[in-house]
Amino acid sequence: MWGEIDPPVKTQQSSHNIEPETEVPDKPVDFSRICDQNRRIETQQPPQDFQSESSLVNAMLTDVAMSGSQVRSQQIGEAELTLGERRQELLQQFRSRPLVFLERYHACLKPEHLPAFSHVSSDPRAQHYSKVVLTRAAGSTNRTRVRNHRYAALRALQKEGKYFSEEEMRRREPLLYEQYIGQYLTDEEVIERSQEAMSDGVDEGQGAPGSSTGGLANLLLNSYQERLIQNRLQEEQEREDGAQEEEEDEEEDIYFSNEDLMKIREAAVFLVHSILRLLQTFPLKDRPETASNFTQIFCQLLHFEPVLGEITFAAPRDVAEMRSIPEMAFYGLELLCSAKHGDQKESLRRVFHQLLYVILMMNKESRGKPVLRVLSQSVLAIRDYAIQFVCHLVEEQREQAKPFLDILLQHICFQIVEKSEYRSHGAQAVGMLTSQMENADYSRFIRWLFNFSRQPKMVHRLFSVDVVMALLEQPERRLEECQDPELATFLPQKFLIQDLLFARRMDDSPTVQGHALSCLAQCLELPSLNVTRAVHNLFSTTGTQTGLDSELTGVPSCTQSNMKSLPFRTVEISSADNSSSDAAKENLALLLRRVKDSKTNVRKAALQALLGLLKHDVVPPTWENLETLSERTRDPAVSVRKKALQCVEELLSAKAECSTVQKVWLQGVLPAVVDSESSVQEKALDALEKVLLSQIKPYSASHHMDTNQRLTWDLLGLLSHECRNLSRYFNRTFTIWSKQNKFTPAFITNLMSHFKADHAAGAWLLLSKVATSCPKLPCGKILDSWDALIKSRDVDVTTFCHILSVVGDIAVHLNNDTKKRIVVDLMSLLKSFTLSLELISAAVQTLYQLGCQESIKQTQAFLDEHCGELLSICEAYLSAVILNENGAQDFDEELMIKHLHTLGVTSLQCPAKVSKKTVLLVESVLTADSDNLPDCQNDVPPSLPLSQFQVNSLPPRIKAHGVLTFGKLCLQREELVHKYLPVFARELEVGKEVAVRNNVVVVMCDLCVRYTNIVDHYIPDISACLRDDEAVIREQTLIMLTNLLQEEFVKWKGSLFFRFMMALVDPVPAIASLCEYCLLHLLLKKNPEMFSQHFIECIFHFNSYNKHKSYNKFPQTEREKVLFSLKGAQHREKRFRIYRFLLEHFTDAQRFNTSNKINQTVLACFADEELPLDADGAEILSETFTILSLKEMKLQATSAGGAAGEEPEEENMARAVLQAAQKKVMSQVQKKAFVENTIPLVISLKNLLEQRRSPVLKDLMAYLQVMMQGYRNEVKEFFSGDEQLAAEVEFALKTMEKEKEMQEQMENCSLREERAKPPTAQGSVPSSPLKQSRMLALNFTTPQPPRPHPQMVRRPMTDSRVCRSRPEECSISKSIALEGTGRLSEALKDRAFSTPKGTNVQITFHEGLSAIYSDQASTASGEASVLHMRPDEQENAGPKFWNVQSPLRQKKRSSKV
Fold first, then answer.
1. CA-CA distances (angstroms) from residue 927 to 268, 944, 955?
2. Helix H or strand E segment including 572
3. How far, in Å, CA of 924 to CA of 942, rounded?
4. d(Cα 1285, Cα 1277) in Å, to the nearest integer?
5. Which among 1186, 1189, 1175 has a CA at the least distance from the CA of 1107?
6. Is there a contact between 414 and 1403 (Cβ–Cβ < 8 Å)?
7. What is the pTM of this model?
8. Which alpha helices (H) appear in 540-677, and where do they start and end?
9. 824, 816 contact by CB (below 8 A)
10. Mapping DSSP to helix (H, G, I), strand (E, B) and coil, where does residue 683 land?
């Protein structure tokens, strides 16, 4: 409390003259100096008895004993020490251990006690604790002095008498004063206080000598000070209210009862009725502010409550009959627009301005930005009524309202938000409002919309696409009704599609691209014939055709059935010349490229657009066009895969009879069954169940099948014949369905009813998949079908296989007699050797299923009996052919192959029946060494290939099948594997027959699964086939090795990885694509570090460099080195294609670590001269610098950037912030590593290369030039140790910038030459009507100095998204304004004024300017047709010019002076 301040503490001067310091000195206390003053009293040794102690020590012991500090440990219950005992204990401690005493009790000591420790003053501990004691005493003194100073200042302020006066307190804290004093003052006291303050100011001014105007000045100052106080009071009050509102939100809400709400509504209705009656009788011409306030109030009342019933604006209305407050509010706005209440133009401006935010569904307060309203039924209803009300006003007051309708439309476009729902409703509003326009006004708005669609802000371009779609829903306007031919070119819907919508396909923003493509697909669904024709003109390459003509030319027959989708519509496609045909092909090619775009939303939208073109026969359903859809079902993005599945489903339903579409549907849907994403699996299974299972109905020859049933059997027929490669996915489908119990007895009955139909092959296919999971099948019908098959044998191979599969599945339910009968039938078929190879395998498998018994011995005995018999027959036939001299001349090749195949298949069932003679016979098929067969003494030399034995007269086809049969024999006998693997390996190296070598690869890879350790030594021989001369062998090897690596039967050892990389640059693109798929989607997932682990060694391996101590040291033959070498300049492109592929799939961590590792293992070795800088070493070093300069080597986190014009959405803002932080951290880490690790090596290498005069120096400088682009201002800092290198790098950077500028100028010149020619849009898109007159780009409507010609403005051409033939665009200002569309006028006198250029101004109706552009085209009367309004008082005022000078011009002028 004020006045309760401790008195100043006076320091007692002891006999030792110790003066406490106010501040502790920085140096240690000179303890000996203080103690020297007391040497006359104390001796060097402390006294031995208590009485002989000095008074100083006694005083110290007394103070410590009375402080309450514990002097020794005591037990519970022990009596407390007396003061004398405490003093005695402390004396003993002081005498025995003075330093411990000082340390323990220094908190109780005072500065005057310190000389008692003079005998230990040299000890650092004593000096430390003495400093602590002095510091504590000085602090206490300072604190007391500060408090005394504050008290003295307080007394001085009290004595002056003004500081604590009410007026001064009100100035310092106006809010506190108002709360504690001001609110309790009466009005008379407030007036009296104000008069006193003003009179005091006047008196003071008059009292001032020599100042006649001082009173007035003080009065003005006081009034200004009072205004400041009131402003502060208002601001503080607002802050406090905001804090209270936050607290109130946390508390429970206050609820009104229904009665209270009804009372509030009745009061509001009464008030609104009163206002309406006032407006009906009392004019507001002289009160514009009141009219403006009424307008705001009525617009706010629109959201007071939901509308009851319907509101009609045209019919006369009575206020008493109005049922809802919004209806009354609309009526009030209509009254305000009447001539009674002032200038109708000004009234319409105010009303349209307020309704703008109602239409945009925003809440606009008097201050601040508008806030979006939550979409609800009531908000949407009020929006619709607001649009109807605007249309009503335009109809009633067309001439006055027409300019403001244009302004309203422009502001809707400008202030729209990016959210899709609000954009959709905003576009609908624009469409409804433009329906009230006449043709001339509508054409002007379309011209404005054309410029608006090229705005730099992405949301504007996005909304322009929405507006186009809304306008296309309106009926097309007649050209005859527009008198101006220039404006008439904007009326057709063709202009909207081709110049506005289709032009956005090349937008810089992927979001706009995707949205434009999606809307293009929606155009084909519109009922307008002109819209359909415009889209046809963009993509159609055929001549004149009629969409519903039965004599279609150039269109596949499968598309004719879909013409029902265009009823009563004849699509005339004009005859196209070569240029339009080429443009249409280019448009289609661009769309197909967009399907493979890097952005997910663009790919989805392009798929939708392609689907629309295919459904409506705009493009033919060729395999090239349809294959793109099936490929996207395997897209990396899950959403794209789902979209592709949806597209193929819709296309199949639209073109169910087209076989190509059916194949595409199967190839797209069936592989999705094994998709890694469960949702994609479910979508594919649902589609298959809907198309295949649900359409299996009972068959009757007298009933005609509908379209869906025919589609089902067509698809099953394709699966049985042309699409048999999809059987793996089909089997997986039925495995999943069997677990879900999809196959009911009714389904089986319906399926089997189709056995005698033309499509019986599909029925047997389904039954073969179902039989494994259905234990109860009607075996009688199946056996009847079997008997009929045996008798007729008029069944194709595939169906026969399915029947055999079904018979094998039901074998467990057959009795022994039936089994024996079927076995006899099978044996007769097999012995006849009339079956195909596929049927032989299926028959042997069925034979095995029929012979399965509970006992394994019985099963094996059955197989030995029947399969052994077949083996004997095959052995006898081979002996007759091979051992007889004339046997090899008269044999049947097909029969020979069937015997070999039967021998191989049956040998797997009864390996014990395979004799050595059988092995030698098969071997002889490969070698034709028949002299070794009778004695069976000599074996084939394992070191020689099959082709190096005696010349074989057998055809290569038989030898190829012989290899497969021999491989099956090896699967059963390990000794044969050891013996013949070298033979197979040698055959791969020197064999000439393609089929034989291909089958050898298959056999060796199959043996690797069974005998992994044995075949592992021959993996280099197998992988060498990746460079075989035949593409089929390279592809087969790639597939087989990928399977082995997936199952980990083979490891990435030796040169296997680098040989896989060679497949990436295979001359056949299909093999290179297959290798890329295998690496990325199959192998990289199992080993994510695979690429980064082998990257550096790739540099040495592909350059055949083996001088490094660690890399490229695995064993290789000379033949393999030559095969897999990419050394030389002729292979440089292939090497860098591999490097880029690897780097593209690195993570940032792998890129960073690889860069550091290259510095340590490559650059450092050359810098330390561990590697010689000869010709080979120079090539390695040069290539290393080039690799480090690749853009793929840069960290994505530091180089990634958003698309042009893209703005992060709210939900992505957190991700953007995180990426920015990550980018900053990564940049710092990369910079540190570059400075500490790379620059020293680069400087050392530069000196070495200069000494050797090596041409690698230019690669080093190029690398530095690339790396220093991000550190342009830090070159001297980085290369502070080598000033010459720093200067060279700076010079290189400047040279690069000059070359870049010159290249841009050259591109700009070429672009101007192109624009000088009449531009033509892609396809049959005509040139834009805006090209017919030169346009002047206007920044809002502010007069500006002459600007460069629009053609001089360079358009970026670096991105592939930029359209080469896009219509000419004017330069776009960086401000919020749009391009102007007026012609160059003689003067700018009719322009309204606005804010200076470059300021960020919010477009609003409140300013003197409301229009977003001004049209300066002169009329016949000489008046300018402007789309803006100015206040009355400014009508005669001239245009205001802003005195804005360029800082550059100011600088030049000052330099001249």
1. 108, 11, 12
2. none
3. 14
4. 12
5. 1175
6. yes
7. 0.65
8. 578-595, 600-615, 623-632, 638-654, 659-669
9. no
10. helix
Phi-psi region of 696 (alpha: psi -120 to 50; beta: other; left: phi over 0): beta
Q: Is 448 exposed, middle or buried (0-12, 13-18, 19+ CB in 10 A)?
A: buried
Strand partners, 572: 546
**Residue type for position 1157:** K
Predicted confidence at residue 578, as pLDDT, reads 58
Nearest CA to 42 among 131, 109, 113? Answer: 113
Give dist(CA 850, CA 1012) in Å, integer. 33
Q: Would you say how long the chain is, in residues? A: 1457
| Whole-angstrom Cα Rg for the chain | 48
- Quote the DSSP letter at residue 1162: I
Mean pLDDT of the chain: 75
Angstrom distance (rounded) from CA 1235 to CA 1277: 10
**Does 290 score more than 60 pLDDT?**
yes
Question: Taking Cα atoms as reference points, which of 806, 839, 808, 802 lies closest to residue 823?
Answer: 808
What does the block give as tokens for 641?
Answer: 């895969």
DSSP-assigned states of every residue in 103-129: HHHGGG--GGGGGGGGGGTTSHHHHHH
- C-beta atoms surrounding 667 within 10 Å: 22
Backbone angles phi, psi at 371, to 5 degrees: -115, 140
Helix (H) or strand (E) holding 404: helix 398-414
Residue with tokens 């849009």: 1321
Hey, CA dihedral for 1097, 1100, 1104, 1105, is it positive or negative? negative
Write out pLDDT tens, residues 426-441.
999 999 998 888 888 8
Q: What share of the chain is helix, strand, coil (3-state, %, to 5)?
A: 65, 0, 35
Residue 1407 has which token pair?
């300013």
Token pair 């299909």 in the structure block, residue: 1070
Query: How many other CB atoms sit within 10 Å of the CB of residue 1222?
Result: 15
Burial class (CB in 10 A: 0-12, 13-18, 19+), 1446: exposed
Judged against a pLDDT cut of 70, whether residue 562 lies above it is answered with no
- Look up residue 1388 and give its two tokens: 């700018």
Residues 878 and 891: beta-carbon distance below 8 Å: no
One-letter amino acid of 1039: I
